[in-house]
Amino acid sequence: MLDIRRIREEPETIAAALARRGVDPDALEEVRALDARRRELITEGDELRAVQKQRSREIGGAGSPQEREALIAEVKKVSARLDELEPAQREAEEALEAALAVLPNLPHPEAPEGEEEDDAVELSAFGARPAFDFAVRDHVELGEALGIIDIPRGVKVSGSRFAFLLGHAVLLEFALVRYALDRLAPEGFTPVIPPVLTREEPLYGTAFLPTGAEQIYAVERDELYLVGTSEVPLAGLHAEEILDEADLPVRYAGFSTCFRREAGTYGKDTRGIFRVHQFDKVEMFSFCLPERSEEEHARLRDLQVDLLSGLGLHGRVVDIAVGDLGASAARKYDCEVYLPGQDAYRELTSASNCTDYQARRLRARYRDAEGENVLLHTLNGTAIAVGRTIIALLETHQRADGTVAVPEALQPHLGTEVLA
Q: Model-level pTM?
């Protein structure tokens, strides 16, 4: 959520920044009008309470019965107006919060212009692009031939966009998870297995609600939601808390199953396990000082490159255009890995700097050296998206005989040098 004081005091600057994200200026004017109305009601209420207090003191010292009655009548009139103001003030506050909740974060000044995925700007590349002297298979062909991916039975059991992982694919998943956690632990990330069912508050705090409701599976009977990323419960870890500055940054590596409806993707990525409703992921999450968040963002990005490079994958880092950012992100980097089976670069990981946008909604703060409570900055980044990484490994390291070489970094965890 944006700082209402900045919207109030820097309207032109905020309007120009949000215009880059396609926000209608009228939406910002509505917020300013609601804020003005709320402040008017607060001011009137404060003034009336002062009058009420003063007249109540004067009643005891009234010089005549008539004066006393007049003061009592005035106090009653003031009290009646206060009774009207209190619900009006609550309604004004709720309306303002609802209007603020749908405004996205301010984009970083250096985030590229544009609205589409193709408007991202390539920043760097990593790894060597694989070359083959035989007909390349995609992950579906390879997975079915090796007996480690079963999509038809996944569809039979659960419907479209579900699959079974079997045998070596399961071992490969846990090898990837352990590989990521072993790499992240020395960097100060505490491993976490968070709840995958959360209340509404963490989803609102991370801005997956209200605007992203169509992507979320709701368990209405219990008023719970299945998370689409462990970013949500990890962010909620320190909601309504005040951390010590000396303890920052606080970093977590959360492993969880994730659930997404994939609304709006009908007909897209229907082959294989690239875009499914259920998947597993190791997610990095950081709470840090505001002045260190850009540095922390680069750190997450570099860790992602290191993890993917260590698996022998080739890809590129792109800076996402402002119009393609999620609501909470001020800037986002994606690592796109080359998938031979698609002959295309596809997103495997992303890293977002959410500045103080989520922290304001979560009321996640730290106490600085002067004893002031200050909003933290929050960042998130994929360490390993298991399903998509399995796709990349199968397609990148396939051999002419249908077997798949296991990267050296995974061999100690997987216990084999080849999938056959």
A: 0.93
Let me know: does 385 contact 349? Beta carbons within 8 Å: yes
The residue from 256, 293, 328, 350 that is catalytic is 350
Per-residue pLDDT reduced to its tens digit, 350-361: 999 999 999 999
Catalytic residue among 8, 261, 275, 292: 275
- Active site residue: 21, 55, 251, 388, which one? 388
Q: At CA 123, angle to CA 118 and CA 125, rounded to 5?
A: 100
Span 211-226, pLDDT tens digits: 999 999 999 999 999 9
CA distance 373 to 367: 5
Question: Does residue 70 carry a pLDDT above 90?
Answer: no
Whether residues 329 and 225 fall in one domain: yes
Active site residue 260: yes
Residue 137 contacts residue 393 (beta carbons within 8 Å): no
Q: In this structure, what token pair is assigned to residue 326?
A: 């999620």
Q: Which CATH number do you get for residue 55?
A: 1.10.287.40
Say if residue 258 is in the same domain as residue 382.
Answer: yes
Tokens at 12, concatenated: 């032109």
Per the annotation, the verdict on 347 as an active-site residue is yes
Same structural domain for residues 97 and 184?
no
**Nearest-angstrom CA–CA distance, 117 and 281:** 22
Tell me which of 283, 294, 336, 347 is the catalytic residue.
347
Straight-line distance from the first to the last Cα atom of the chain, in angstroms, rounded to the nearest whole number: 51
Query: Is 21 a catalytic site residue?
Result: no
Do 328 and 294 lie in a common domain? yes
User: Is 153 a catalytic site residue?
Assistant: no
- Same-domain check for residues 80 and 126: no
Could you say which of 260, 316, 361, 365 is catalytic?
A: 260
Query: Strands, DSSP E only, in 106-158?
Result: 121-126, 149-150
